[in-house]
Amino acid sequence: MVAREKVSSVKLVLWVIIALTTLAIGYLAAGLFVADRLSAPSHHPQELTPTDVGLNYYEVSIQSTDGLELAGWWVPGNSPSQAVVLVPGTEGDKSDRHILKTASVYAGAGYGVLMIDLRAQGGSEGERVTMGYKEVRDVRGALLWLNERGFAPGEVVLHGFSLGGATVLRAAPQSGVAAVVEESAYSDLPLILRQQLPKVSGLPSFFTPGIFLMGKLFLGIDPWAVRPEEDARRLCEEGVRLLIIHSKDDEAVPFKHAERIRKACPEAAFWSIEGYRHVGAYAHPRYRERLLNFLRTLEANESTYSGLLK
Fold it and tell me: Domain residue spans in the chain?
């Protein structure tokens, strides 16, 4: 009788172990599936070209610092010492309307304008969209491309949107760039993923840590390393000027992300707008004025610049 009870207990323990192992495998497999799907390349038909906003341009090829070939458009400017890199967001590319409308503002101010497709998006190489983890290498490659054409880092503005905004914040510290403009950027990748993953994956938030873990272990994406608010803090310490643009009605990246970036860099100029969707500031009637005011402060080399944007 005792022997039978021992055998039954052992079987029960084994069944529990098997069940827990099966659940763990299922949990991690679901995490890997979602991480794989959400980081897949994004290549969409081209929306517009610079010609559609009255700009002459060249198609160019840029190398990321880890060797990927990136597609770009180059609009030469009137000034030999002013350039901007425009960096699009997730599921976007250089042909997006907000990119080209912004390009026309810079071109009108005499800047040379370099528009790039980040890795695994648009016309660029790459197997994964890494949400700002490896995309910093693309922005650094763009800076090298400009440097080879006579533009020192201190003559370059980095301007990014959403993922591109987070990426330029990460790429800018210690780069020597003149300034950074970010629109609709997230302040902390784990935070925005915890907010958005249950919606886009259809899975309960319980699965989110598993998605993070499998992305890091199997896809080479470390979400915990992407904290743009920390990079904004470093920018302030270096004295690099920063303009934050964010709508209180942004449906993709909540406004509190902009507030966190501003808190990390109190000296930043902060333009908050209402009634505009994600990366929709370009349609605001004062967009051109606000951006040009910020650029003028760079030219004037003023010690304080927020006042012009109030």
Answer: 1-37+190-225, 47-188+226-309
pLDDT of 109-156, one tens digit each?
999 999 999 999 999 999 999 999 999 999 999 999 999 999 999 999
CB 103 within 8 A of CB 53: yes
Query: What is d(CA 108, CA 102) in angstroms, rounded to the nearest whole number?
Result: 10
- Give the helix, strand, coil percentages of the chain, each rounded to 5: 50, 15, 35
Query: 5-62 pLDDT, tens per residue?
Result: 565 666 667 777 787 778 778 888 888 888 999 899 999 888 899 999 999 999 999 9
Q: For residues 268-295, b (16+ Cβ closer than 10 Å) or e, as one string? A: bbbbebeebebbbbbebeebbebbebbb
Residues 6+ apart with CB under 8 A from 222: 133, 215, 216
d(CA 294, CA 245): 12
CATH top-level class for 47-188+226-309? alpha beta
- Which among 123, 159, 134, 145 has a CA at the least distance from the CA of 44? 123
The pLDDT-based confidence of 187 (bands split at 50, 70, 90) is: very high
